[in-house]
Amino acid sequence: MSGAALGLEIVFVFFLALFLLHRYGDFKKQHRLVIIATLLAWYLCFLIVFILPLDVSTTIYNRCKLAVNSSPAESNGSYVTLAPSKQKCFKPWSYIPNGIMPIFWRVVYWTSQFLTWILLPFMQSYARSGGFSITGKIKTALIENAIYYGTYLLIFGAFLIYVAVNPNFNLQWNQLQTIGIAAANTWGLFLLVLLLGYGLVEIPRSHWNGAKRGYLLMKTYFKAAKLMTEKADAEENLEDIMEEVRKVSESIKYNHPLRKCVDTILKKCPTEYQERMGRNMDDYEDFDERQNSYPSEKSLVKLHKQVIYSVQRHRRTQVQWQILLEQAFYLEDVAKNETSATRQFVHTFHSQEPENKIIRYFYTPSVEWYWECLLRPWFYRVLAVVLATFSVIVVWSECTFFSTKPVLSLFAVFIQLAEKTYNYIYIEMACFLTIFFLSICVYSTVFRIRVFNYYYLASHHQTDAYSLLFSGMLFCRLTPPLCLNFLGLTHMDATISHKNTQPTAYTSIMGSMRVLSFIADGFYIYYPMLVVILCIATYFSLGTRCLNLLGFQQFMGDSEMTSDLIDEGKELIRREKRKRQRQEEGENRRREWKERYGNRDDSTRNRVVHTDQKESSFSETNTNRSLSKYTRSNGRTERDRIELLQDAEPLDFNADSINDDPLEADSGR
Question: Disordered: where is this region (predicted)?
């Protein structure tokens, strides 16, 4: 049963990471190495979070066995019995045999560190490079990462000098390894507290605001105004880049040595631009080597990089605009249906995606109305209260987890109470919920933040390779200090509890942080208290207000700029709504026209052709020529009439002005 629990979690976490990566990445268009590297980074980080509760329960059982073996005891079946007090150490259902977890953690930890510090930064530069060959991309990646790797060596050298100069330490390999782990965890903990302070407040608040329909609709209008500006900027940037590509394509002819590079750039351009450039390109002229107006290979590399970036940005804004429109239309439908007397949810537009029959069978319009208009707001409010309670417990425990007598950390109190009764199910559930909530607060912030257009995780397969790799780097750097912080909150870390007990397998591979006392007794203890200040700053939206003062439009209810953008977004949504309504009305009228008059037009055309064939069989050559002219003109007139009717503007069509009998209408004309 123990091996089954570990195996099931390994398989489940793999499919979870694969599902999330499929939502944000594009398996068809992005490079396979980028997908594999990002999947491996996400998978290892999620795996640490899910397996750590099993390590805690196994460690508690091993501590019980050591306590029993240190006293007169006797063995009885699947548990060990302490003779004096008849205490029983039951083996947990998810028990993992000794020797497996240390090897597992060592492989997972060092693989994730290799990814985040060496491989993923190199692949970032490689994916973003505009080189036309593998060698050129590798060279560019090495040059860009020279400063990056030099910074690591400088930081590691500083720790190394500190330990070497201190006479209290004898530098050994294990201590050197601990210094490297401490340096990585210190950097990760610094960023972890910043992201955690934001997520502890923003996640409960976002769910509470999710129950406010008016708030969500106003924020959607605000996003629409901002996204339209970004969309227009992306289109303008793409036009400028395509104009440069056109000039380069016209100047470099078919027999130029750099023509292959130009063809590579053209393949990355959108299809409509490729066709336009192909029509205007004349390759009959040879290039003149004496002219100096030809671009260099270096400039083509830069242009190639700009094309990749501009095309990706343009495609992303187009998809996000369509998604935002659907969201705005749906929120407006919810606002309209709240006052519905029939309690049937009515959509303004039909879904463009094919509907699942099973879902529509259970999720009827009546069920949808009760969920969207009645139950969902209350569900979000209750969930927000539960999440806010968890956030308060986390903040309290972060400020008091260093106190062992008395134990003030609530998570440590819960685990110690369950440890006395050896309720392993409760221990694992409490550990899982705690570390899962911490992970949600940190990882959701990673998915939400946006550093201009440098880093941005966009759903619906719109995230570029650079952002995917960057997210993998962040996850690998944040997860180890997150787990150490969790073990400190629960007093499972001997460095925090100051007890001479068996450590968990995870902390055993980290080594003793006593090698660096100012980190173990100072930074790791007092820096997490900063989360209180960050939570207060997030609650009062100090960061949002600062960005708004700097000119970055942020959604603030008491801002005049926000009100202007909301009005602008509302007008944009109204315009797009009218446009879509006209399109649907036009399609409906064309469909009705074909259903009512399509068969009669076909029969009229068949009668005309049959009469022409009959008359042509009894006529002379001249008569045949004249009749054929008449037939062609008549057929041409008939075709023109049908084409004009099919291409007519739906808004100008009025069914009441058309006679019921098409023959009378034809004779009238």
Answer: 598-669
